[in-house]
Design a protein that fits this description.
Elements (H helix, E strand, L loop, with lengths): L19 H5 L5 H11 L8 E4 L9 H14 L6 E6 L9 H15 L14 E6 L4 H13 L3 E4 L3 H7 L17 H12 L9 E4 L14 E5 L13 E3 L1 H11 L4 E5 L6 H10 L15 E5 L3 E2 L6 H9 L14 H7 L3 H11 L7 E2 L1 H15 L2 E2 L1 E2 L2 E6 L7 E7 L9 E7 L1 E5 L3 E2 L9 E2 L3 E4 L4 E9 L5 E9 L15 E2 L1 E3 L4 E8 L25 E9 L12 E3 L3 E5 L7 E7 L13
Parallel strand pairs: 1-2, 2-3, 8-9, 10-11, 12-27, 14-22, 18-19, 20-23, 25-29
Antiparallel strand pairs: 4-5, 5-6, 6-7, 13-26, 14-17, 15-16, 17-24, 20-21, 21-22, 25-26, 27-28, 28-29
């Protein structure tokens, strides 16, 4: 399980849900059914407790988001139920404080849809934050218990020798020649390991179970290994570190976890989890008095096409500078999606949409993009931006005149209010919104025909100016001053296009993010480097775009809809005028935009 702010909301947002129960538990699944059964059979709601145990060796990604949402939804099943955040910090060579800080921020952001909580403790169903290293002494005492019971021994095989004696899926393993060391000798060696008297790898502590077990995880698994390295939480106190499979059940028991939720790759590890639960005296370790020991339940991990969700592979993208860090908006990390303008509500909605099963399946990334669009369509204010400007001179509009037009900040929700949009003689429209000739399906501006400017007048194109190469560089149009905000009864204009006033336009640079991989399943062929499936157009930078005047005051923090274009979010004060595309208005990979405008 270890590798298992766009939070600001504009005034007058619609469609938000403040109830945690409604947000997180409105979709049933087999795990929630099992939890409800336990509650109906007498488990006290206050004894219902889950945990999310990330390893702090990278940033959290979308697969972790699924686990967080699932664990928290269980914690919301009853009063007093909670979810703990427990860092699995048993491998200090790969762990950093940077990752710990990022994980805290991601968990808080994801579960804090209404941005009311300032820290994890403010979340209504959050329990405590812990580290596996918080229990190093108790875990060590559990190891001593097993040695004293004759259920663990110090093994001096090298890693290569251990591999050779482990056996295969069809052949049993061989007992270590050190398996029959006496309890006294094992205790002395374990103490010496604890005191730092041996070199890395010189010894391990192994459980004494069954080398002939059909489950390789039960063939005398390693419980402790020697690592003389500095730990980010405990310093140099511990020269030995427990393995995750030993740490996991003990930490669960010490925290009074009732349901330990893991992805399916841990199903074969469950017999070892249960073995530790049976053989360790948790009362002697100071575990809380709970009705029952934790139960491990597995569910299918998230697989998303056009994406990799392996932390090791994501780290390679970062290390080889294929992306700009863990929070690059193309990354499927929670930090990357937040930077791109994905909302916590949309990610929670996505996690509910895909459900929780025990069957591995590949989710289409368009499902994620749909969840984002569905949320932003209700909550994102509107603005106009022209990506490829084409100048339009409205020849019958007075040269010295300017007027401020009223435009709704959201077309379906008057609570958002309005914004002032300046209008003048010279404006810019999208170059793609004009054709000299077009069929009836083209509902934008055509030479000799009319179109409505969004929130403004109807204009007719009377001429187009070309340069020496024949490229259209300017349009001459006439406006009808009686058409502001309405179509006259004697004629209806079907087409509507967006525009910006030339004198008031705000220069913008747009980062158009797309899927990081063009290969649907970049990890499917194990013989080919997954990087060969990279999408060369995952980032296109558009210089020279122009936005409406209101964008000069955009403080960022929440996405906008650039009308007829897509959802965008300001990169932030460190990059003024730069906007990241969150998602386009439609799934362009499913056939592209139509020709109707």
């Amino acid at each position: 399980m270890a590798d298992s702010n766009a939070s600001g909301t504009p005034t007058g947002e619609s469609g938000s849900e403040s109830s945690n129960e409604k947000r997180h538990t409105d979709v049933h699944n087999f795990i929630l059914a099992r939890v409800d059964k336990a509650l109906s059979e007498g488990l006290a709601p206050s004894a219902l407790r889950t945990r999310f145990p990330p390893e702090p060796n990278g940033f959290l990604h979308l697969g972790h988001a699924k686990s967080i949402c699932l664990n928290y939804s269980v914690a919301e099943r009853g009063d007093g139920a909670t979810m703990n955040l427990r860092f699995d910090d048993t491998n200090p060579e790969k762990e950093e404080q940077t990752y710990i800080d990022a994980i805290r921020e991601d968990v808080l952001w994801l579960l804090n849809e209404d941005a009311s909580a300032k820290q994890l403790d403010d979340l209504p169903s959050f329990g405590v934050e812990r580290f596996a290293s918080s229990y190093f002494e108790e875990i060590y005492q559990a190891a001593r218990q097993l040695v004293n019971k004759g259920l663990a021994f110090v093994c001096s095989l090298t890693p290569e020798e251990m591999t050779q004696t482990r056996g295969t899926l069809t052949a049993p393993g061989q007992n270590s020649p050190y398996r029959e060391r006496s309890v006294e000798e094992n205790m002395q060696l374990l103490e010496a390991m604890r005191n730092g008297e041996f070199d890395d790898g010189q010894h391990t502590l192994r459980a004494k179970i069954d080398m002939a077990s059909p489950n390789i995880n039960m063939r005398d698994p390693i419980l402790y290994r020697i690592r003389r390295t500095e730990h980010h939480q405990t310093g140099a106190i511990w020269p030995i570190f427990p393995m995750y499979d030993f740490t996991h059940p003990i930490s669960d028991a010490l925290e009074g976890i009732s349901h330990s939720l893991c992805t399916l790759e841990f199903e074969d590890h469950r017999p070892l989890y249960d073995w530790v639960m049976r053989e360790v005296d948790f009362e002697a370790l100071g575990a809380p008095d709970v009705p029952a020991l934790p139960v491990q339940i597995e569910f299918a991990r998230l697989n998303l096409n056009y994406t990799v969700l392996s932390k090791r592979k994501l780290k390679r993208l970062v290390d080889e500078e294929i992306v700009n860090g863990w929070a690059d908006p193309r990354m499927p990390t929670i930090a990357g999606m937040r930077a791109r303008g994905f909302t916590a509500k949309a990610l929670n909605h996505f996690c509910r949409m895909i459900g929780v099963t025990r069957s591995d399946a590949v989710v289409d990334v368009s499902t994620l993009e749909f969840a984002v669009r569905e949320d932003l369509n209700e909550r994102a204010p509107r603005a106009m931006c022209v990506q490829a400007p084409l100048k339009v001179v409205i020849t019958n509009y007075p040269e010295d005149r300017e007027e401020m037009l009223d435009a709704a900040r959201h077309p379906q929700n008057p609570d958002f209010g309005t914004r002032a949009v300046p209008f003048s003689r010279e404006i810019y429209i999208e170059a793609d919104d004009f054709r000299e000739e077009a069929n009836k399906k083209f509902k934008r501006l055509v030479l000799g025909k009319e179109v409505r400017l969004r929130n403004a007048y109807v204009i007719r194109c009377v001429d187009c100016i070309k340069d020496a190469s024949g490229k259209i560089v300017e349009l001459h149009c006439e406006y009808d001053d009686k058409t502001l905000g309405r179509d006259p009864e004697d004629r209806k204009v079907k087409g509507v296009i967006h525009w910006v006033s030339a004198a008031h336009a705000v220069p913008l640079t747009l980062h158009l993010y797309d899927r990081l991989f063009s290969e649907p399943l970049p990890e499917a062929n194990k013989e080919i480097d997954f990087l060969e499936g990279l999408n060369p157009n995952s980032l296109q930078i558009v210089e020279g775009a122009l936005g409406e005047a209101s964008l000069a005051q955009d403080g960022g923090g929440f996405p906008l809809q650039f009308e007829r274009t897509g959802y965008f979010i300001a990169a932030g004060p460190q990059s003024p005028g730069v906007y990241y595309r969150t998602v386009p208005l439609r799934d362009t990979w499913a056939g592209g935009a139509d020709d109707n405008g």
